[in-house]
Design brief:
single chain, alpha+beta, Immunoglobulin-like, five-stranded antiparallel β-sheet
Length: 195
């Protein structure tokens, strides 16, 4: 009988330990699943706002034209700028803010890379003759490859006389001396402004 009792006690202890281990694993699994599923604290908010009156959207066009500007880099030396008068017109239906970019159309030489374009408004500061004589103060200048805002805004249908300059600064690098000029493009671009 003692043999039987001993075997039964071991079996009861083993069963009790197994049940406690199973229960602990079940609790741990439940906690892990709760954390994974819940992940944190949540709240739901709801906001309402009154409907506003209908807004009308209109499409417009942005178009620029420029006439009269003709520049050449021939005869430029450090400190010299040549000027040409022209007219920029907003032929679109939306107000435009003008920017200016000077870009090489081929591989840029040291001479071309040193050039600077300027723009002034001849309409308020003088005539076309004043422009070509270099008596119109620039409102903006652009180095090669760097677009610059001119500060000029044109309403739809409006135009302005401009004085465009192309020059070699007095502090141009020595490598620019005697180098050939490569072809350049001077671009006026318009960006829409709020009306």
């Amino acid at each position: 009988m003692s043999r039987m009792l001993s075997h039964r006690t071991k079996r009861t202890r083993a069963s009790a330990t197994g049940r406690m281990l199973t229960a602990a694993l079940a609790v741990a699994a439940s906690v892990a699943m709760g954390i994974a599923a819940g992940g944190g604290t949540y709240a739901a908010w709801s906001v309402t706002a009154p409907a506003v009156a209908a807004t009308t959207l209109r499409a417009g066009t942005a178009e620029l034209s420029i006439t009269g500007v003709q520049l050449t880099a021939t005869g430029l030396y450090p400190g010299r700028t040549v000027h040409s008068a022209g007219v920029v017109r907003n032929t679109g239906t939306t107000p435009l803010s003008l920017s200016l970019t000077l870009s090489p159309t081929a591989a840029s030489t040291a001479f071309t890379s040193a050039l600077v374009a300027t723009v002034g408004t001849a309409g308020t500061a003088g005539t076309a003759a004043d422009c070509t004589a270099g008596r119109v103060a620039p409102v903006a200048s652009a180095a090669v490859g760097a677009p610059v805002e001119t500060g000029i805004t044109l309403a739809p249908g409006a135009s302005t006389a401009v004085c465009v300059g192309l020059g070699l600064p007095a502090n141009a690098p020595a490598a620019a001396a005697g180098a050939a000029a490569s072809a350049l493009t001077l671009t006026f671009a318009g960006s829409q402004v709020a009306s």
